[in-house]
Design goal:
With 243 residues, this protein is α/β, with parallel strands linked by helices. 43% of the residues lie in helices and 10% in strands. It contains 8 helices and 6 strands. The longest helix has 27 residues, at 3-29. The protein starts with a helix and ends with a helix.
Length: 243
């Protein structure tokens, strides 16, 4: 095969991954399966927070975001009511995102340490961010049924993304969602074999990416000191070493 043909073949593969992700995220954005979550997201977008009165809230399921050829997949819990539910991008516009993107920038997975809006210039490098639930839930607590309803999106992302070598689960609920996917695909026997512990790395064998647990960068965790910047930096530096 000529070098030109090799290059053309690579471009075809690239477009297939990108197009597949775009099609999937278009489905995410128009999903109406969870009545409770859709009603809550829309109500938050209607009422708004006083500091964001001039914002036109996103108020819909939030698509995933990042490098389509990433080797690291970060799984969060769900969009923040006045963060991603407002801006339309994962971990953007609230304190959780401020904390996470500072860590990703410091470990060279993000082009800048701030995430304020979809047009802020932020790009992820070798990193893709998704969530266990795609709509902002009341009290940040999706139900078990809502997690189950949303899980097929995560299943398909894992099938489309070609290069994932490490999965970072932000919190025990994100971990549970990811393990449910693996169990559904008969890749693990029991979720209980992989308990959540901050900084814990699980090597799941040659067929699966490594799995790393990290406390969620919620305001509750970061303000109480349960998760500090050195702690989350330690997780992503460990990931960087694994890559």
């Amino acid at each position: 095969m000529k070098p030109e043909s090799l290059q053309e073949g690579f471009l075809i593969v690239t477009m297939t991954v990108v197009d597949s992700l775009h099609l999937l995220q278009d489905e995410v954005k128009t999903c109406t399966r969870c009545t409770r979550l859709r009603a809550h997201s829309l109500e938050v977008a209607r009422v708004k927070r006083s500091a964001y009165r001039n914002w036109e809230y996103w108020g819909r399921p939030v698509p995933s975001f990042g490098d389509p050829h990433a080797r690291i997949l970060v799984i969060g819990l769900a969009p923040g009511a006045h963060g991603a539910n407002r801006t339309g991008r994962m971990f953007t516009g609230d304190s959780s995102g401020d904390f996470l993107y500072r860590a990703l920038y410091a470990t060279d997975f993000a082009s800048q340490p701030e995430a304020t809006a979809q047009n802020d210039g932020l790009q992820l490098k070798d990193c893709y961010i998704t969530a266990a639930a795609r709509c902002a839930p009341p009290d940040n607590k999706p139900t078990r049924e809502e997690f189950t309803t949303c899980n097929p999106f995560l299943v398909r992302e894992l099938e489309i993304l070609p290069n994932i070598r490490v999965v970072v689960a932000l919190g025990h609920l994100a971990l549970a969602a990811y393990l449910s996917v693996l169990q559904y695909k008969n890749l693990i026997k029991k979720r209980s074999d992989y308990p959540f512990r901050h900084g814990k790395l699980y090597n799941l064998g040659d067929r699966l990416p490594d799995l790393v647990c990290c406390y969620h960068p919620s305001r509750q965790n970061t303000q109480t000191g349960r998760l500090t910047m050195p702690m989350i930096l330690g997780v992503f530096r460990q990931v960087r070493r694994r890559l």
